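User: Hi! I'm a student and our assignment asks us to look at how structure tokens line up with a sequence. Could you show me two examples?

Assistant: Happy to help. In each example below, the sequence comes first and the structure tokens follow. Example one:
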Amino acid sequence: MIVERLNAAQVRAHAQELADLLVETVHSGASVGFLAPLDGPEALAWWRGRARGVAAGELAVWAAREGTRVAGTVSLAFADKPNSRHRAELVKLMVRREARGRGLGHALLDTAERAAVASGVTLLHLDTETDSPAERLYRAAGWTPLGAIPDYAASPAGVLRPTTVYYKQVGAPALTG
């Protein structure tokens, strides 16, 4: 397995594979911000739109490959305000169904966490559907649950579900004086 950070041109070049992964993820019931049925053109347009954020330095995207196929992805969304540049949001961690259970989710998390530290980020946060399989991954990787918000987001089936917010301190805070 190879995990690589994608630049804007690479996000555009791999947009179809990333879109296919997004469609599969939504159709498998994972709550990643989209409702089912998600069609390919909508997912492709969404991924192509991410290239702008990557080019602007607002978003970092990694893709994991098993052979020639994208098997997973994760992104970091960087804060844009001066008082919050020490933090980032972990978003859109997705792993193909057939690649699950082999450590790919942990590898993607570890990659994003190390990159966050290298870029000066000391605090990460995320939200995920309460009682989802993703919660086991985040807890095993040392993320701390903050609490659940009832009826926060709709599942792919359109049912309102609670969301648990997590955080993880990944580096030493910078001292100001």
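Example two works the same way, sequence first and then tokens:
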Amino acid sequence: MDVVFLSRLQFATTTIFHFLFVPLSISMALFVAILETMYVRTGKEEYKSLAKFWGKLFLINFAVGIVTGILQEFQFGMNWSAYSRFVGDVFGAPLAIEALLAFFLESTFLGIWIFGWDRLSKKVHLLCIWLVFIGTAISAFWILIANSFMQHPVGFEVNNGRAEMNDFLALITNGQLWVEFPHTIFGALMTGAAFVFGVSAWKIFRKQNADLFKSTFLIATIIGLIGFFGVALSGHSQAQYLVKTQPMKMAASEALWGKSGDPAGWNLIAFIDPDKQENSFELNIPGLLSFLSYSKFSGEIKGIQELQAEYTQTYGEGNYIPPVRTTFWSFRIMIAAGMLSFLLFAYGLYLHRKKKLDKLGKFFTRSALFGISLPFIANTSGWIMTEIGRQPWTVFGLMRTEDSVSPSVSAGQVLFSVITFTGIYAILGCVMAYLFVKVIKKGPYGEKPEAAIAKDPFSDSFKKGGKRRDS
């Protein structure tokens, strides 16, 4: 194993693990803000209890996300010093703004929110959690500015072997950013919705504060459906932009070796042979690729072989074909996971409208719990497709991956850091899972499930033996 492979492996593991927490933090902040808004508007204590319950899970996720983000940054100085030197002038401003503005905003007001329940007025306290949500979204925006530059470099000039920013506005108005950012945010909404949906279904099935969790089940269902349609529309825009800026990635994601024909069909399944540069089998949906690319059922897409010849003329001799199998299947895994999530949300809405939540079965409950993983799978496979499909470039058209690694770092040193970071991530993952399960089992009242049922202001047992606490 060489340095380039190990450095890429470490980047993949640290980025994927960190990105498990980012979308969940964004969406959970929104869920907590919605629940606290309902508490402030209605004055019902049950919404306050729910806001605190989901807030605890948000805080756990947020804390682990910070740790994984710090570890991720270490590798840029260790393994990617040549890359850092090349893009440092461009990345410096947006990443500094992210740290000083967005992260400062979300962390400061999160602290105020945690300790301000009995010290601030309801409306001021509510404002704090909404600012936390806004801060998480702004943080994603500035980080995606950097990633968008890697996909479609703009607003720079190369001097003395370094990319130097000469147009800050061009970075902010980068077309890649404005198709990537909505896709990320809507994907985050689906992630949090699936988490709340699954946990709420489990609580309803177990008859633990069941009526209380019906409200979060419905909120999760609605936000999940909004997230799905937002992901679909923004993904469509992203595909159309990809045809213009990174046609090789589009061709690889379709395992399209020669020209597509007109209209272009979309390969649902393909048996890919990269050595022969052909597919031994294809299951094709006619015209769909043209629609994805041009919003009409006509139009031709360039193939990998033609693009390889064009890239050779532009950039010189070399292999410009990304790993086709990985790009192709990661794209389809993303779509499949998204569609399964949609089916769960749609069926959940049906159950709510038909008032069948009291009779949830084991199969649906287990499906809802499994559904928690689906947006994470979709997010991960989507990023794999985005980053692998850009190869062999670190910065598209400017810097190759093989030229980006640290020249003085050995394979053994990188392997040691890979093992160390993976071990730390495994520990963090176990700790987080333990804390999540502990908080979820206790429920919104921090008691044993049996005791909590009796105190549920929505439950039948409470209505018979006590008074409602909806003041």
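Here is something you could point out in your write-up. The radius of gyration is 24 Å.
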